[in-house]
Design a protein that fits this description.
The chain has one domain. It is an alpha/beta fold. Helix 1 links the parallel strand 1 and strand 2. The protein is globular and about 40 Å long. The N and C termini lie far apart (39 Å). Bound molecules: iron/sulfur cluster. The site of iron/sulfur cluster has 11 residues, from helix 3.
């Protein structure tokens, strides 16, 4: 494959405090087991992204990513990825409200 992503928006959870009618992932406040990937699996995915493009912009989104208890651990592990200069942002509800 000759494809190199430069911006990755990653929906880490389907949970959200809001119930927007236009929601693109049908997010709801209570979704049992809504985090499909464990913390370790997410770290593996970030490693794989960094191998493809270590300077890609990674947007941690959802749902509401702050509802994931491991969000800050995941964010803190990004600079620890070998040879990774990946900038990241957290896309959270207040910035999305209208
Ligand atoms: S804030 Fe975003 S994720 Fe949450 S319900 Fe609205 S559209 Fe869905």
């Amino acid at each position: 494959m000759n494809y190199r992503p430069h911006v990755i928006s990653w929906n880490l959870t389907q949970r959200c405090n809001l119930l927007c009618t236009h929601c693109y992932i049908s997010a709801v406040p209570q979704v049992g087991n809504s985090e499909k990937l464990t913390t370790q699996e997410c770290r593996r995915v970030m490693d794989e992204i960094a191998q493809i493009n270590p300077s890609a912009l990674l947007i941690l989104s959802g749902g509401e990513p702050l509802l994931r208890p491991d969000l800050f651990d995941l964010a803190a592990s990004i600079p620890l990825i070998k040879k990774c200069t990946m900038p990241f942002a957290v896309s959270t509800e207040p910035g999305r409200r209208r």
